[in-house]
Amino acid sequence: MKIAILSQKASLYSTRRLKEAGEQRGHQMKVIDYLRCYMNIASHRPTVVYQQKQLEDFDAIIPRIGASKTFYGTAVVRQFEMMGVFTANESQAISRSRDKLRCLQLLAREGIGLPVTGFANSTKDIEGLIEIVGGAPLVIKLLEGTQGIGVVLAETTQAAKSVIEAFRGLDANILVQEFIKEAEGADIRCFVVGDKVVASMKRQSEPGEFRSNLHRGGTAEKIKLTPEERSTAVRAAKTMGLKVAGVDILRSNHGPVVIEVNSSPGLEGIEAASNVDVASKIIEFIEKNSAPKKTRDRIQY
Is 211 annotated as a binding residue? Predict the structure, then answer.
């Protein structure tokens, strides 16, 4: 097969591993900087051009779209879809998962466990918003934040009011969530490919830090999931329409709760912690499922 990896850098660990895994399985792999692609949006013959050459004859693409480049990245993915190329994650599913509020609303509709979450526009409604999630301590999240950036733990009601007023004063959209104290600064990353969890790890935050992101100094180790956690991760990915996803879960007193569904999950941490060749699992999925014009996103909203 001829497979394109849409990534800004060929040197990134995840991109490099996917290329290696594909080549080891006999496929022709090409890394394409999607920001350097341009498109001819023509009736009956849509095309994608890269380095002044039309990208043709690809059997599949693997999107590795950066969170800050979602708009243009998904436009390129959508153009490939218009050309009938199979994609590991479809453009609509990527966009859906990147909108944190929309993501939580869809997960809630499906009855998937979530932290109690509040969303408001006016600073006049702050007290009611805080009350909805059970009061302080609580977590405040920027809708546009990634890798733990823009996530604040407010330990008192006054601190929560001050942070919310500051964010809204900058016209930043925020979510307010209950603080899952019993998680003790740890979360679980479940890596879903197709309809199963192929690898998982527990991420533990540094002492004094409640965010467990590896980019913020957290540590990772292999973990055995419960059947409920496994089922929750698969259902969350399916709800977003994602075939390749990193689903982040907290262990709470009322069962597993989903805090994020990532459409371009990194491979480095999960492969090291779980000792699973996740890159090859993704290539295997493409081998079994790719077919021309096979786009099947039927999720409402």
Answer: yes
